[in-house]
Design goal:
Layout lengths: L2 H11 L9 H9 L12 H29 L12 H21 L5 H9 L10 H24 L5 H24 L10
Length: 192
Amino acid sequence: MDDRTRLTYLTRHYYELQGIRTLPLWIYFVAIQPGDNPVHLKGPAQAVFPFIAVGLAGLFAWLGGQYFRRRFGWLDSTWIFPKSRIYWGLYLGSFIWAMYCIFFSHFHGFFPYAFTIVWISPLFDKENPVLRHAYFALAGLAVFSSAMFLQITHSDGRIIIVIQCVVLLALCIADHLLLMSLCTPPGDGADA
């Protein structure tokens, strides 16, 4: 990626690549899953804990934004929605099918597919580097195949939430590393 392409991509996707700001949210969702974990609370603490956890995640996101602003600067940028008709067709089709199954069949098993299609949108953006296409494709494939495996084997479907959150956690870190690699100063012979 030459310097002009790198700077154009970085300025257009600057906020999108700050995925590390949502890291505590995905850790929280993994931690509260049923099973043998230390976060099971009883009584009033059970009602208050989610608000505290989400508040702390929001505080971390705000502090993360301040860190990026101090370290790398501020951009007047907006979220970029995918322009691909294939993406929107997949998303709308999977969401409508999931809602149909929930209301008429009382089956929630297709909802993870609709949710996964929401966050694999960078896969359909031609501007993204090959590396970002690759790790979003692998992440989407991991969630799709695990959800399909759970449906075929009739296993407990709650594990899919944990898988989704762990994959989103990995994508947050991968996007942050990509941002850090793009923010490195250009070489001595570069035209700026």
